[in-house]
Design a protein that fits this description.
two-stranded antiparallel ribbon, four-stranded antiparallel beta sheet
Amino acid sequence: MVIGMNCWKTINLSKDYGFHRLFIVSVLTMMFTFISIYLPLVVAFPSVQLKEGHFLLFLLFIAGVVPCHKLLHAVPLWMSGYRVSLKIKLQTYMPVIYIKTNCNVNKTNMILSLITPFLTVTALMIAGLVTNPSYLHYFCLGIAFHTGLCVTDFIFLKQLVKAPKTCVIEEADESFEILFQK
């Protein structure tokens, strides 16, 4: 903790919400997102013939979304001059990417870091949907999956928006601390 700073709030999503609750909210978000995107598109464009090919490519894409999502969190921080360390650990036979900054991050940069994966991946999916309407069901599933993946980012973003304007965010082991000057 930085000297001369007070802790405004500590956010530990697994402790505050629990894994099961976060998982359920994430799955419900995925379902709601898919229904709210897919149904209007199918009704608006009834002449589009949906293709079922390239399903393996779709599965590879879905598997690649998670590491891309993690890396996209780091991009705004790198561009702002922060040093970000990446670690890949094997957890239950799956590689998991961990991202950690070596110093406190200001509120604006943290907001950018949280929102960048959602905006980037969603924009790419929408571009894919527009250029390949025959695969709109795959792109809608991709958008829905990624939106569900972003649930924890949205929860943290909601807390961060309420924080004091000049606060900084410090990463702890399992949580984030929002700090402000005394």
